[in-house]
Each structure stands twice: as structure tokens, then as C-alpha cells.
Amino acid sequence: MPIDALAALLMGLAGSGHCLMMCGGLAGALGQQASVTRLLIYNLGRISSYTIAGALIGAAAASISQVTPDGFVYLRLLAALLLFCLGLYFGGWWLGLQRIERLGRPLWRAIQPLAVKFRATRSLPATAVAGMLWGWLPCGLVYSALSWAAVSGSAGNGALYMALFGLGTLPAMFAFGWFSRALQSFLQSQGFRQLMGCVLIIYAIWVAIIALRQLPLFS
Amino acid sequence: MAIKLPEVPAGTCFHCLQALPADGGYSARLANQDVAVCCYGCQAVAQTINEQKLLHFYVYRDTTNPLQIPLLPEELQQLQAYDDERLQAQFTRTTDQGRQRELTLSVEGMTCSACAWLIEHHVQWLAGVGSVKVNATTERVYISWYADQIKLSQILQAIAGLGYRALPFESATQEQDFKRRRRYYVRRLGLAGLATMQVMMIAVGLYFGVVSDLDDSLRQFMWWISLVVATPVLLYSAQPFYISAMRSIQAQRPNMDVPVSIALLGAYGASAYATFIGHGEVYFESVSMFTFLLLIGRYLELLARQKAISAATNLIKLVPALAQRETAGGDIETVPVSDLSPGQIIRVAPGATLPADGILLDQPATLNEAVLTGESRPVQKPAGTTVLAGSINQQQPLRIEVTAAQQETVLASIVALKDLALSRKPRLAQAAEKLASTFVIRLLIVAAITFLVWSFIDPQQAFWVTLAVLVATCPCALALAAPTAVTGAIHNLNTRGVVLRNADVLNTIQDIKTVFVDKTGTLTTGEFSLQHEHIISGRYKQDAIRALVQALEHHSEHPLAQPLRQLTATPASVSAVVNHPGQGLSGIWSHSDESLHVRVGSLSFIRQWHPEFTPAVAASQIFVATEQEPLAEYHVGDQIRIDAKASIEQLQQAGIEVIMLTGDRAELAQPVAEQLGITKVYADSLPDTKLSVVSAAQQQHPVMMIGDGINDGPVLAQADISVTFGHAADLARVTADVMLMRNNFGAVLEFRQVALRSRGILRQNIIWALVYNIGILPIAMAGFVTPYIAAIGMSLSSLIVLANSLRLYR
């Protein structure tokens, strides 16, 4: 289903403003001298972490969905729900998604000391690893995207979706300063976040409708 | 760690500077201080930064304005150049005892009213900025600021941070800017036009089965060609819509370009997808055509706008850039106008345009003030009067003492006023704009519902039906309805010498049932002249008496004395002249070989000597007498405007009650009123009586007041529409809504007609737009409108509105 892949890319793009606020300046601060190569390597590291997570979740979900016949549909509905919450979160209307962010905290606590260690060395591989570690930062955006990987049906698709999601976030993170000023101020504006929130909500409802039609109850 | 954490604005996350959630969010411990953060993500990042000893990141970032994107150093330097005082003097005006400055900026990249809103709200919050008025129509921003609190470069920087380029407006570059802007559209329009023709040809072929019996691969090939041709249209021609949509979303007031952009990108995306996978529906021709038609509308609107603007600013261009200045030694040097300062003396050759305002020295002049008043006949100016930049010297060389140059001239303030009128939207236009904006939001919601409902009914069709809804109901016509009509009205009025300060009058004009008129200076010309002379004495000749009156009145400042100062060529000799305020003048007249005590002045002043004296003519106000006998009486009055009678008649025929409201005595007001057919007269009215009369009349319905802009200030402010005859020189002090620069009373009628017509057109526009938009909605939602038809319908509806408004330009 390539349309889902597009959705993953869109989610990344939609989150651009969020990423820019959260980590935009930081990417420079953490990457020492923010040379283009270093920044790229760092972000590719981050995206590869997403990809790995996507593969893991995709595989796990694929095996679960074989337990019940409609399991896949229910997973889709769950993904739609998460997407809906993400829409509310973007628009600033309901921040419940933060509870999910909390789930990632223990993981990050475990990883954080490593991140400190890798920052000390400045070689390119070390930068890549630092970026990979950064990818495990608790982030509601990432978790919603992961729910998408869950319904992808296989480890491969899960990895693909997450990679696309990562690519979507790349322009904002990477091209801080490359973008025209007009575009930057647009991406960071509340209006853009709300629009994206609306788009995600409508998309979530649509996904839910399509999923429900597949249930024996409605077809 | 001895790092001092910076303060962040209250209620925002310490890390990402976005608003904290309602419950206050979470806290993070950094450098032994607790800070509030908005989410676990920020908490984790902040703590990581702390542990990695990177807290300097927080110290060096700019927390005052999280949305402010830093400028590159060289850009900043360019802007800072504008802080130079000498440079600023060329384009700023100073008010409020020099503390406040104002200027007009021209802004590049402004596309819509959302842009105006963004800039206005962003700049308004800067400390030290007095007021900001953004005019999306003229792409100009009018700003006043206190130079001691904020620098001009800081304001420019704030606007640049939003992604606009703002520079002080220079009329010299305007023509270039206009051309550039037109070329911007023409290029995109041309491309869209060519591409539309190509894609349409293919589409028609495919629709009508020319290739229906051909195999799929050929059809696929046609699709690919369409894709290739339509792509530049989408990426290049449609750019203005995306930019405008982005801006409006940023301002959180989505405009019509949002549905337009969604529809364009959606239709193109889905068609491209169908082309790639080889089956489905393809609407490249709709994408191209929609872009093309929309661009035509925008281009026409742009042309109309530019016409309105250049009509105002072309005036400024008429003022020469160089002036002939007299040096201390009496020589002439050629200097730039920017070097002129008050008190210097300039010379103006016959046929040349005055480069600055000033006082006419030495001799009278004949000037053409058409630029200022719209009146093409030359006017006589006696020596010692004020002459204005932009007037054309018709006869002999002139010497002028400069009083104001450049931005301080009356002409500059007329242009500024026209700009102001263009930037202030009348309430009806505001309402229409707001309606269009809420309409867009509703439309988006309706489109979403349509999509979801159709997903249930028939998922295959859902997308295209939604697209048709977005396109067909896009309120472009509604959004164009008001601004185009108002711009047209202002332009139309300006060409007739009517300057609007407040376009709201276009709205109120039709409710006006009562017009109050002041007498002096309004119904009359305001220029006093000798109306009647009656010689009483038999002993002295008329010439001798006139010479005496002239000599005495020469010492008077009273306005009525003015025409009596030019009675003869040689005044009599008088001595020991004493001014008795409120009564007149006395002196000693040396006539032939006698010396006589004489008086000139009011009736009561003369009656102190001759208690039983009664004037021969009731209207006489000025009397002259010796101690022995009264000599003569004079009636000084002002002339009734030639066309006042006919104009008032026409107003009355239109069902409007005309009432005279004057401070003059009844015996002076009544004859004038009778002559003009005015039946209701309030004479002897003090300013506060005038005020209560007008506000009493306002209880019934809105009223218009035509009066002297300077003396009638309060009562003009009270009236719903205030009109004044702009003696150009007083323009800056005048506070009326409407200024009639052409000095005849008929301009009132002309103003009324144009205003009524504009309002009519405005209403037609809005009604038509509403009928179309509401009517097409259910049809589109039901799925009866193809994207193709939708594009044509929507574009036609806006072109109709546009064409209707363009009537005002004729």
C-alpha cells in the first residue's frame, strides 16, 4: 500500500515545525561544528534508528496479527486512533499523547549515558552513532509513526515506513538555514501545526472508516 | 556549575519555547535550578543537554522571540544603514514635536490580506511603535514610531524575520516594482495558458473517443505527455497561490488560496499517481485550466490596483528633484530638493513646477494647481500667500521662500491621505472579508465531511467529489467583491478631485437624509469682497472717503477689513491710529488743510458720536464718520458659490433635507438661505449649539455635515459623514472624512453619486458571490460537478465580480 508510505512521509513533514523547535538548534549544538556532512551523518544515524525500530515493530505486529483473523484490522484501528491523537497534539487541542512519550523514558535513561560518551569523540562514525542514540529520544511523533509501522504487515514495510518518516523530518532538521526565511517562519507557526493537526485527524478518521468497512460487521 | 540560566517568557517551555500545557507541564532540573518544560521529550532533551554540559546552548539563544529567525550579517548591515538621520529625513515625516516619526514602507512578498494581518500584528507589539497600518492593496506599510525607543532598522528586521523585504517607499522605484510584479504574473500566466491549450487538446481527444479504440499504451503515453506539460504549471505558475495559502495559515486565518492549493496539489498528485500506475482518472487539464483562469483574475485585479495606486503617486513624480536656490550673494545654484530647508529662497522659471511649498515673494503669480485640486484653470496668487509644490508656474519667474520640502509638503500629505484611504477598509468590506474567511473554514470542514461520507458510500469517488467541492465553492469571488470595488471607488473619486480619508462613507452615504451646511466658506467662497457702498456725506468726494477708509483699515487685522484695504491707489494720510478691539479704529485725518478726528468700525462705535444715526442699508456692517457727521457705510460679504443653488436643488430633489447651520447673524444668514432655497436655518450657533443640533438630528438617521474643516472640527467629527472644501494649504489640519479639492459646490453631488454607485456595485458583488457559493455547494457535494466544470464555474464567478468592479474605473 504505497499510500500508507506517503502518509508516513507526510507525518514526518508535518512534524517538521515540532522537530525544528525541539532539536533544530540542538542539532548544531550537539554536532559541534555544524558542517553539512556532519549534520547529514548525524541525522542519517537518527533515521536509521527509526528504521530499526520500524522493522522490529512491524515484525512483532505481523506475528500478532496472525493470532486472530481480524487482528490486522484492529491494529489499523489502533493506528488510526494514535494518528487522531497526534492530530490533536499538533493542533494543541489535547496533549494526551504525552502519556505515550512517557513510556519511552526508561529506554532513554538507559541510552543517555552512551550518548554522553559518544559526544566526546569527533570522528564521523562516532557522530553517526550519536545520531542513532538520539533517535531513541522519547517523542510522541515517533511513536505515532511507529503505530503505522505496526500495521505495515511485515518487518520490511515497517522499516520502509519509518525510513520515509525520518526522511520527512530531515528537511527541517537538516536544512535549518537552507530554507527560505518565509518557509521557516511558516513551518514554525501555530497555524501550520493546526492545519497539520486537522489533516492528520481527517486522515485518521478516513483510515478508521476504511478499516471498519473490512470488518464483517459492516461489510 | 556556575552557569546562569536565561529567563524565558512566562508560560512557555524552557526548552522549545512553545506554550506550556494548561496544567503547567513538567519540570526539569538544570544546573540546580528547576525549569518548566512542556513534555517528556523536552524534559529528556533538556536533561541530556545538562548532563552533556552543553548549557551554553540556552545561554546564547534568543528567547525574546522564538519565531524570530536571525538575519544574515550583511542583510542586517543593509537595514542598519537606514538608521542614518540624513537618509531618514528624505522619506520620513516627523510629528508630535519631532518625537514621533512616520514613514511608508513598500513590502515585497506581500500577497494577501493575511500577510497584512501578520505584519500588522507582529510589528504592533514592538515597543516604541506607535501605529502600523498595512495596505495589502498597495503593498505598503505605514508606520509611526518613537525614534528614542526603537530604531527603524529594528522594525525592518522584525518584518524581515517574517520573510518579507520591507524598504522605505520610494516613488521613483515604484514603476519598476509595478513592472516586476506584472511580469511575475505575465510569465506565469503565459506558461499556464500555453500548457492549458496543449493539455486540453489531449484531454478533448481522450474524452471524445478520438483514441478510444486505441490501445492502453497509447492512452498511457498521452497521460505522460499531459503530466510533463502540467508539471511546470503546478510548480511555477501556481506559486502565488501556495505562498498566499501558506501566509494565511501562518496568520491562522485561512484564505481562499488554501482550498485552491489543496485542490491543485490534490488533483495533480492523484492524476500523477494514476499515470504512474496506469489506471484511474486523470485531470491534468483541470489543473492547468484552473491555474490559468485564477491567474487571469489575479492579474486583472493587480492591474486595477496598480492603476489606483499610480494615480496617487504619479503626483509626487511631478515634483522636480532639483531646485534653483539663491545663494547669499544673490547667485543661483542648482541643488537637489532634499537640500532645501525652510527660509531659503528659490527661483522658479515660467512653465516649471514648484519644487517645494513656500511663500510667494515680490510679485503675484499665476499658477496651475491641477495636481492638487483637480481644477485645471490657473489661479491668481497675490504676493505673500502660500504656494504649493506641484503647482505649475504659468507666467513670470518667481521667487519663493521655502516653508516645506519633500515629505513635509502639502502634496506629500495628499498622497499620504490617499494611501491611508486605500488602507482603511470600510465596514462592509471588512465584513465581506471576514465572511470569506469564515466561509473558507466552513468550506474546509464541509469538504472533509464530504470526503468521509463518500468514503463510506463509494471510496472510488470520494476523492474527486471532495476536490470538486473544494474548487467549485472556493470563495474567490467573495474575497474579491469588496476590495476591488473599494479600490475602484477611491480611484474614481480621486480623479474627480475628491480625497477620501475614510472609505467607510461609501457605506453610510445611502442612509443620509439630512445634510447640514455651514455658510461661510462652504455655500460661499469664503473670500470677502465689497458688496455695497453708500456714501452719506455730501461734503467729501467718494475717492477721498475711500482713501481714508483704506488708510485706517490698513491697521486692522479683521477679516472684513481685507477688501477695504484695496479701494484706491493712494491711501489718505492718517495719524495716531488706535485699534479699539471689537469696535473699530480711530485716528486723525489730514484732509486738505483740516485735521479731523475720524472713526471706522461697527454701528455702535459710530453711534457713540451720532446716537440717532440709522444705516441706509440694513446689511451694512462697516461705517466711517468724522466727529461732525457720518461719511459712508459699507457692506462686506462673501460671494455665494456659483453652482451652490443648482446643487442644493438637486440634493433636495433626491429627498435630502438641506439645513444651514452657521455662526453668523440671522440677518446675514437668512438672505443667503433664501437665495439658495434653504428653508431651515440655524443662525447665531455657537460650536456647542451646532453639536447638539447635529446630534439631535442623528437620533433620526445618519447626517452629513459640510463645513469648514478647521473651525467646525467638533461638529464635523460628530456627523456620520463630514465633508469639507479642501483649501489645499490647510489640508494637514483638516479632519473631515471627505475633502473636495475642486473648489465648487457641485463636487458634493459628484461625490454622492460616485459613492452611491460604488456601494451599489459592492453590494451586487457580495450578493452574487454569496448566491453562487451557496448555490453550488449542495450540487458539488452530491457529486454532480466534475473538477472540470467546478474550475470553470468558480473562475467565471470571480471574473464576473471583477468585471463589475472594473466599471468603476471608467
Automatic annotation (TrEMBL), chain A:
Urease accessory protein UreH-like transmembrane domain location: 7-206
Membrane-spanning parts: 47-65, 77-96, 133-151, 158-179, 191-212
Keywords, sorted A to Z: Membrane, Transmembrane, Transmembrane helix
Keyword hit for Signal: no
Top-level taxon of origin: Bacteria
InterPro entries linked to this entry: UreH-like_TM_dom
One Pfam family in the UniProt entry: DsbD_2
This protein's name: Membrane protein
UniProtKB/TrEMBL annotation, chain B:
Membrane-topology annotation of the record: Multi-pass membrane protein
Compartment(s) where it occurs, according to its Swiss-Prot or TrEMBL record: Cell membrane
Cellular-component GO terms for this entry: plasma membrane
Predominant location: membrane
Superkingdom, taxonomy of origin: Bacteria
PANTHER family per the UniProt record, alphabetical: ATP7, ISOFORM B, CATION-TRANSPORTING P-TYPE ATPASE-RELATED
Protein name: ATPase
